[in-house]
Amino acid sequence: MRLTTFTMVLLLAACWSGAALATPKADAKKAHTVMQQKCTSCHGQDKIDAALKAGKDLTVIQKEMERKGARLNANERDVLGIYWSQNPLKQKK
Ligand code: HEC
Prior knowledge:
Blueprint: H1 2-19, H2 24-38, H3 45-53, H4 58-68, H5 74-86
Helix pairs in contact: 1-5, 2-5
Bound molecules: heme C.
């Protein structure tokens, strides 16, 4: 069920950010590898970065992209889910 997966990702993200405060970069690296493999065949990383900067909900956009043809396995979904939830590019006000 999608909602359950999403809740689990959120929980994971919550645990992860508490447990690994010292190494926040490692996950962004993984996420970028996934994006380079699975997302940049149709458009550039710039499109994704722009959406992150604008504070858009990438969880929703990712589902749209999967409908368009992006193929993600469960692990890649987790990696991206954590990355979206942390959104290192979002402008802090
Ligand atoms: C099969 C081709 C394809 C793949 C693979 C793909 N996209 Fe897209 N994406 C598009 C197209 C086409 C658009 C522009 C049309 C639109 O915005 O709906 C787009 C637009 C976007 C946008 C801008 C949407 C907005 O509202 O700002 C983002 C962000 C994005 N993609 C992220 C991703 C991510 C993340 C992945 C990997 C999980 C991905 N895309 C994989 C085709 C793809």
